[in-house]
């Protein structure tokens, strides 16, 4: 079945540092890929998405590129802020009719940014 | 847009008791999902509905778990009897019809359940 493997955390960075959170996936066909963010005490929010190979999703300074050859969707940000402290989840939705409406999540990566 | 509303935010109960979690999806959304989040297993999809009809409940762990959606604006997840291993954060999410890339999930703030 489909699966998502995420870089284990927690990750602690200083403000303005460069961020990379690795994500690789296993899926049949052509899944869509997502990054969700969860702030303390809240539900998950969609951060960015990509639907096909070489697509780059971006939002709030975060970027991720859909790499089919390496089955990866790594999240990056050039300069993190304290307000970026949260848990980040990589996820995919399958390409078949049965799996297209279901998200498979990675285990999540806790990011803490220190001032 | 009030967002997905879940209640209660926190629930503490004793083993063997019945627990009911509630969810009000965003108005106009056709899909409703129940997820469970634990440290050990991460986020797991329990069940989802389309137009109030359960479509896939293969993630429901046991017969102790049941979910209903009597109308488009309300859903419940019930655990009877509850056990300590059911302790988790339970999220409800909703979305419009269409692919998830165009109709993303909107999550509620979750219910933190503790079973002692």
Keywords, separated by commas or semicolons:
heterodimer, A: mainly beta, 4-stranded antiparallel sheet, 12 strands, B: mainly beta, 7-stranded mixed sheet, globular
Description:
The complex is a heterodimer of chains A (115) and B (116). Chain A has 115 residues and is mostly beta strands. Chain A has strands spanning 3-6, 11-14, 19-21, 23-26, 32-38, 44-50, 56-59, 62-65, 75-77, 86-93, 103-105, 109-114. In chain A, strands 2, 5, 6, 10, 11 and 12 form a six-stranded mixed sheet that branches. Chain B has 116 residues and is an all-beta fold. Chain B is globular, with a radius of gyration of 13 Å. The termini of chain B are far apart. Chain B contains no helices and eleven strands. In chain B, 0% of the residues lie in helices and 53% in strands. Chain B has strands at residues 5-7, 10-13, 19-24, 31-38, 42-50, 53-56, 65-71, 74-79, 88-95, 106-107, 111-115. In chain B, the strands form two sheets. In chain B, strands 2, 4, 5, 6, 9, 10 and 11 form a seven-stranded mixed sheet that branches. A four-stranded antiparallel sheet of chain B has the order 1-3-8-7, with no helix packed on it. The A-B interface holds A 32, 34, 41-46, 49, 51, 89, 93, 98, 100-103, 105-108 and B 4, 31, 42-43, 45, 48, 50, 55-56, 91, 93, 99-101, 104-105, 107-110.
- Count of β-strands of chain B: 11
Give the C-alpha Rg of chain A. 14 Å
Oligomer: heterodimer
Q: Largest sheet of chain B, described in full?
A: 7 strands, mixed
């Amino acid at each position: 079945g489909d699966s998502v493997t995420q870089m284990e955390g927690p990750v602690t960075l200083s403000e303005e540092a460069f961020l990379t959170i690795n994500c690789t996936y296993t899926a049949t066909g052509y899944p869509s890929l997502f990054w969700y963010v969860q702030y303390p005490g809240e539900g998950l929010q969609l951060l960015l998405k990509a639907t096909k190979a070489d697509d780059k999703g971006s939002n709030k300074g975060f970027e991720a590129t859909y790499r089919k050859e390496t089955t990866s969707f790594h999240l990056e940000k050039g300069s993190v802020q304290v307000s970026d402290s949260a848990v980040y989840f990589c996820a995919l939705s399958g390409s078949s009719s049965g799996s297209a409406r279901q998200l498979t999540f990675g285990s999540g990566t806790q990011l803490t940014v220190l001032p | 847009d009030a967002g997905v509303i879940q209640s209660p935010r926190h629930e503490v109960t004793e083993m063997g008791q019945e627990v009911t979690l509630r969810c009000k999806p965003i108005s106009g959304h056709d899909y409703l999902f129940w997820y469970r989040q634990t440290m050990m297993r991460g986020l797991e999809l329990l069940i989802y509905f389309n137009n109030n009809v359960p479509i896939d409940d293969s993630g429901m762990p046991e017969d102790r778990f049941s979910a209903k959606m009597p109308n488009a604006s309300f859903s419940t997840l019930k655990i009877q009897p509850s056990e300590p291993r059911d302790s988790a954060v339970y999220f409800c999410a909703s979305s419009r019809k269409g692919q998830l890339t165009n109709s993303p999930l909107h999550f509620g703030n979750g219910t933190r359940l503790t079973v002692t």
